[in-house]
Dual-specificity RNA methyltransferase RlmN (Psychrobacter frigidicola), 421 residues
Amino acid sequence: MSTLIKTNAATTATRAQPVQAHTPAKRNNSIKLLDEAQAKTNLLGMTQAQLADYFKSIGEKPFRSTQVIKWIYQQGVTDFEQMTNLSKGLRDKLSANACVIPPKVIHRQYSEDGTRKWVFEVTGGSLVETVLIPADDSKINGRKTLCVSSQVGCALDCSFCSTGKQGFERDLTAAEILGQLWVANASYMTDAQDSLDDVDHSLWENNVTNVVMMGMGEPLLNYRPVVSSMELMLSDHAYGLSKRRVTLSTSGVVPKMYELAQELDVALAISLHAPNDELRNELVPINKKYPLDQLMAAARNYVFDVNPRHKKHVTIEYVMLDGVNDSDVHAKQLVALLGDLPSKINLIPFNPFPHAGYDKSSNNRIHSFSNILSEAGFVCTIRQTRGDDIDAACGQLVGQVADRTRRSAAWQQSIKDRENT
Ligand code: SF4
C-alpha cells in the first residue's frame, strides 16, 4: 500500500548518493554479486521453521537455525566465517552452499532531518524503494519508522497513486522484503561506502523501531513472503519488534484480511480514501470487487472477533484530494461508515506528482474535515508532509531513477496525447 509519505521539509538539505558498483577491493558483506545469490541458498528472510528445515536438509541440527538467525538480525553478520559459535565444519558447509544477501542499493538519499531513502535493485533488475522516517530528529533514540515495499509496482491502480501508475512487475521475495529492514539497520553501522568490513558486530544495534508495510505494492497480494517477513520482525530471535509496532496496510483484499487475522497478530491499517462505494470505486478500484460493507466486516472481524485483547483498533488512511473526497459531507459519511469500529484516522495531505490529476486539499479544508471526525469521537491525526525536495512519496523516487514498465510508458504516452489535443 503506497503511503504517500513525504520525508523531509523543503528547506532540509539532502545528500543524494547514487551507489557505485563495488570493485573487488570494495566488495563487502552487505552487497554481493547476484550470481552468488542465484547459485546458493539465500538464508535471509527464511523463518525459523524454514531455516530449521534447511539445516535438517543438510544433515545439521535444527537448533542451528536460532543461532544463525541471531547472527543475521541481531548482530548484522552475513559472513558465516564470523559466526563463531558454529563449528568450523558447519561454517565451511554454509559458506559453500548458502549466503545471506540483501537486495542491492543503487541509490540513496539521507536528509539532515534523519530521513533516509533507498532504491534497491532486485533480481531481474527491477527497482523498489524504502523510506525511513524518524519521528523526531532531536531524539537520537526516538521512533524510526521504516516504510517497506512488498511488490515491484502495483496492479491495483489506485487513481491517485504514483506506484499504481508504474504498473505491476512482480512480487518481492521474503529476502527482498526483509532485506529492506536489514539494510536500513545496517545503514547506522556503516560509512558512506556501505562497508561493513570494519564494523564491530558485538556493538550492532537495530535502530528501526517500527515497520509499516505501506511501500510499493499491496502486501496482501504477496501474502506468504509478507507474513514470513513479519514473523521475523516479531521474533525475539530476530528483530523482536512489538506487534503494535509492525503494521500491515491494505487497500482491502478482504479474503486475505480474514486469513491474516487467523495467522498473525500485527497492527492493521486500511487505505480507505473514500466514505462511499461510488467514490471508492473510482479512487481504489479493488472496491468494485470488495465493496465497503465487505471491507468493514473484515475490519470488524480483525478487531473484535480474533484475539480481541490485542487488536485494539484499525488505522484508517485517508488521502485528502481537493474537491474530490474532502467535503464536510464526506466527513460525516466517514463517521457513519466507521460507526463503533475502534479506529484512528490518519488524514494524508495529497503529495502531488506530475500529471497526477489531483490537487492537495487546503489546510483549512483538512482541519474542517478533521474537526468533524474529532467531534464524533474519533482520534484523528493529520500526517505531516515532509520531503518536497526528494520526491518522497512511495513510488516517486523509483519513477525518477528508472521507468521500466510498459504500462508506465503507455501512461506517459496518454499524457502526451492529452497535452497535444
Ligand atoms: S495502487 Fe493502491 S494498493 Fe497499489 S501501491 Fe498504490 S495505493 Fe497501494
